[in-house]
Specification:
This protein has 12 helices and 11 strands. It is an alpha/beta fold. The strands form 3 sheets. A 7-stranded mixed sheet has the order 1-10-7-2-5-3-4, sandwiched between helices.
Length: 333
Amino acid sequence: MKIEFAPINIPLKRRIQTAAVLQWIFSFLLLAEFCCGFFVILILGNFWFLGVLYLLWLYHDWDTPCAGGRRFQCVRNWTIWKYFREYFPIKLIKTSELSPEHNYLLGFHPHGVLVAGAFGNFCTGQNFKTLFPGITPYLHITPIWFGCPFFREYVMSAGMVSASKESVSYVLNNEGGGHASVIVIGGAEESLNAHPGSLTLNILKRKGFIKMALKHGAHLVPVFSFGENELFKQVANPRGSRLRSIQERLQKIMGFALPLFHARGVFQYTFGLIPYRQPIHTIGDPIPVKKNLNPTNEEIEQLHELYLQKLNKLFEDHKRNYGIPEQRCLVFE
């Protein structure tokens, strides 16, 4: 295998962008484990009383991820996130107005390997606020991460909250409007389909978000992130293969998937865990929803079908702008 090294004379700005993405990869893959290890050392070491104090705080604060979290704008506005977004680059495209008088449930597609588009658009910087003033986005992630000492504080500071029903209800129950729940509909399972060129979405059996939107009268916004699946290559794992079976079994046990992905390195472009520099463009269009505290199965099915139609139309209307061949179509499963 021939290694393609990066040129020596790369501009400093691009090197900073790579460093920003590298720390994001570390945070996504290892920071939770590092925080748990630090907590164990704290408990077993000379400063055990600090660990005990944190446990008391954790007991007191346990429900916060399900009650809107605890965001810090200073963390969301870190300069490092600007370089992170510029690396790809990540751009949020406004195609429709969203009134701050309503609450919204944004269904994000596809999951990709590490959900870079969702994080870059809804957890960093002022871009969303600039395009949609008066609306506060909340990115819902797997509840298991909020059980990790210290790490939970970090992800909450960026505006992430639990993906539990209780948490989504809390966000959408804001009577004054202006809240937006961002849910990655395909979940961890869909990350196993995140191969370059893949357009397969796990959505046909996922209808809980539809029921939630109806019960709270939250307008539904299908969101498609073009380029999300192009950031990494993944070891071949077709359905029915031994690797896929192991991955799906682990996903059911742990609550998150383990895609075997790779891309480029810091100083060379041949192998590593740094994503490729592929642009990500995220777009969406709202579907008005009337509040219905007790929706029937038929009403849920009808809205789910409308959601699929709107998502498919969104993709078809914009795919030419982002280099997707005319014959390529979304696959729902």
